[in-house]
Structure prediction request, 138 residues.
Amino acid sequence: MWVCPKCQRKFAKSNQMHSCRTISLDQHFVNKPKAQEIFNQLLQMITKEIGKVEIISLPCCVHLYGQYDFLAALPKADKLEIRFALNRLLDSPRRINQVALSQQSYKNCIDVYDIKDVDEELLSWVKEAFFLKDKQES
Prediction:
C-alpha cells in the first residue's frame, strides 16, 4: 500500500495518479435528503455488521475504506448509487450496470431508493467487496 503524503489516501500502487482535493461530506447531500438517509443507514449497517470504515469525501463521490477503497457512493436527488467490485459476475435484477475491471474483477452499480433496500442481500455483497482483497492475497 502506498499512502499519499499530502492527502493520506491509500493506493495499491506507488505514486498513483490522483487528485488530493476533498470536499465536506455535507456538500454531497445538499438538497438530497433521501440519499443522505440511505447513506447513513448503509454506513450504520456496514459499521455494525462488517467493520470499521474511513470516509473519504471527494468531489466526484464518497469513498469508503476498510483495508482499501471498497465502495463508492454517489448521492442523487432521489437515490444513492453505490459501486463496488467483486471477483465474480453479480447476477441480480438490482444491478444496474457491471463493468469488467480485469479478468477477475467486476465493478457493480446498484441504485438504492429506500432505506429498506439496505438489506441482508445488499450487505452480503458489500461485505464480499470489503474482504475481497483479503481473499485475493490468501
Observations:
- Residues 21-137 form one domain.
- Strands lie at 2-3, 10-11, 54-57, 62-65, 69-75, 80-86, 95-100, 106-112.
